[in-house]
Amino acid sequence: MEDQSAFGVGSVDGYGKQAQQGQNLGEENPTDGSNTKDPFYTMPGVLHFLQTEWSKFEMERSQWEVERAELQARIAFLQGERKGQENLKHDLVRRIKMLEFALRQERAKFHRLKFGSEPPGGAAIAAATAGDATDGDSGASPAVSQLLDPEELLRETSTQTAATKAKAKDGRQLIRQYLQV
């Protein structure tokens, strides 16, 4: 039950706490008469304790670093996902604006062709469709254009085709400018 160690005589527990011979913890020492409740520590016991505590600390630190790396990876993934959603939203808003713009132009064009005049409250629509105002149409209704002779009708049709191509080109340029903003 008693172990001989290099640093003292007596029993040694796992952390170097050593009880004196003939002494239990809490008993008075019969030789000197003092009350020694605190055992003294041995050097191997202290080193063993420090090594175990250090290894526990290192293990906890490495676990914390692994958890930190996992959380940083998750944060990066979620930020990328959020950025992708923002880009998608931005693209969809741009498409909606482009389609609304094209719809306003088509409505104004249809109103001009049907009624031969600008739509009511068309100041905003007319500003948006300024390129359509120069389409070569003099504001005459379709019934009047049928009264023209065939040569005049052919000439008007070819001018309208060229104007339509020019309007389409202008419209594409306007949409590009609109999408760049």
TrEMBL record:
<dbReference type="Pfam" id="PF08232">
    <property type="entry name" value="Striatin"/>
</dbReference>
<protein>
    <submittedName>
        <fullName>Striatin domain-containing protein</fullName>
    </submittedName>
</protein>
<keyword id="KW-0597">Phosphoprotein</keyword>
<dbReference type="InterPro" id="IPR051488">
    <property type="entry name" value="WD_repeat_striatin"/>
</dbReference>
<dbReference type="GO" id="GO:0005737">
    <property type="term" value="C:cytoplasm"/>
</dbReference>
<comment type="similarity">
    <text>Belongs to the WD repeat striatin family.</text>
</comment>
<feature type="region of interest" description="Disordered">
    <location>
        <begin position="1"/>
        <end position="40"/>
    </location>
</feature>
<keyword id="KW-0112">Calmodulin-binding</keyword>
<feature type="domain" description="Striatin N-terminal">
    <location>
        <begin position="42"/>
        <end position="180"/>
    </location>
</feature>
<keyword id="KW-0963">Cytoplasm</keyword>
<keyword id="KW-0677">Repeat</keyword>
<dbReference type="GO" id="GO:0005516">
    <property type="term" value="F:calmodulin binding"/>
</dbReference>
<keyword id="KW-0175">Coiled coil</keyword>
<feature type="compositionally biased region" description="Polar residues">
    <location>
        <begin position="18"/>
        <end position="37"/>
    </location>
</feature>
<dbReference type="InterPro" id="IPR013258">
    <property type="entry name" value="Striatin_N"/>
</dbReference>
<feature type="coiled-coil region">
    <location>
        <begin position="61"/>
        <end position="88"/>
    </location>
</feature>
